[in-house]
Amino acid sequence: MEILAFGVQADEKPLIEQAFQGHHEVRCLDVFLNEDTAPIAVGYEVVCTSVNCDLGNHVLQTLAAGGTRMVAQRSTGFNNIDLKVAERLAMTVARVSSYSPYSVAEFAWTLAMAVNRRIVRASTRTRDFDFRLDGLMGRDLHGRTAGVLGTGKIGEAFARIAHGFGMNLLGWDVAENPTCMQLGMRYVAKERLLAESDLVSLHVPLMPETSRLIDADALKAMKDDAILINSSRGGLIDTAALVTELREGRFTGVGLDVYESEAGLFFLDKSLQAVDDDTLARLVTFPNVLVTSHQAYYTEDAVGQIVETTLRNVLDYKAGRRSENVLVPRS
Predict the structure, then answer these.
(1) D-isomer specific 2-hydroxyacid dehydrogenase catalytic domain location, by residue (predicted)?
(2) Residue 30 gets which letter from DSSP?
């Protein structure tokens, strides 16, 4: 069987081809699955997708009509897939329920330290042989408070690093994590966490209940000199409201690896085109904001685990097995 993989990055391709070798043939495309590219999948029983692929009603209908019976998503998130439509079409859907939490947690800290210590500005200056320190002053994080919204595996890894810095820990989640509590984390209401934290990091999934979790009111509740980090999903933050607060001169730094309207932008080269997203265009102009292109997960370790799990999902599908990764089972 030959599998069609959409949205494959150059560094990712050899890992996918190596993992599937001896099992199934795989054709890797750098284009993302959407209404325009869905017809390419005609004749492929299994398609492999990424989080920025569009698997809405129209795309799934096109895939089903072309003979696709399984979608193997190479990510933990699946908010881009209409599961009800997939179930109605008797299409199996599987995801990667977990991979290295350290990849995302460590990158979240990379963003936090970069905006706190003005690393991008300093690097740009020294390339021009400007070695002044004006405007580069950061803050010690030791003794300050880190607020972790979402204390699952990634949030726990983030909290461990914060504990290593000697920070006080506040947490918010639907369930308390005993390991985080052993680190000294106190679970509090979201409003209190936002009001008391010097650093706020988001590690919750994007669901209807968490959409725009950080809205205008939440942003106003935060300290004026707080640091806000999002390496989870862009839709957790009301970006327009964030821009409004940034224009008021608030926040020491904001580090975003995700953006709520990133589909059609992230993972693509738009450097020679005019980007018509006014919110993003304004966001990247702020000197205290660092935006990266959804790369927190992008380590050899994490991507390797993602690919291996994706292969296992395909093998399970062919064998009629079901695992914790299955979102819509084989009918």
Answers:
(1) 8-327
(2) S
Q: Quick one: 21 and 128 in the same domain? A: no
Lowest mean pLDDT among 198-202, 255-259, 268-272: 268-272
| pTM exceeds 0.85, yes or no | yes
Q: CA-CA distance, 168 to 151, in Å (whole number)?
A: 15
Instruction: Give the range of the structural domain holding residue 43, as residue numbers without chain letter.
Output: 2-99+299-328
- Catalytic (active site) residue 294: yes
Q: Does residue 155 contact residue 183 with C-beta atoms inside 8 Å?
A: no
What's the burial of 240, exposed, middle or buried (CB within 10 Å: 0-12/13-18/19+)? middle
Catalytic one of 95, 203, 233, 312: 233
140 and 286 fall within a common domain: yes
Quickly tell me which residue has 């999948």 as its tokens.
Answer: 41
68 in the same domain as 131:
no
List the beta bridge partners of residue 289: 254
Task: Write down the catalytic residue from 12, 156, 245, 262.
Answer: 262
Q: Which of 74, 95, 250, 294 is catalytic?
A: 294
For residue 11, which of 258, 312, 315, 307 has the smallest C-alpha distance?
307
Q: How many CA atoms lie within 13 A of 300 on its CB side?
A: 1
Instruction: Please say if 160 is a catalytic residue.
Output: no
Q: What is the pLDDT of residues 150-206, one digit of tens each?
A: 999 999 999 999 999 999 999 999 999 999 999 999 999 999 999 999 999 999 999
**73 in the same domain as 54:** yes
DSSP H or E run through 245 = helix 239-247
Residue 233 known to be catalytic: yes
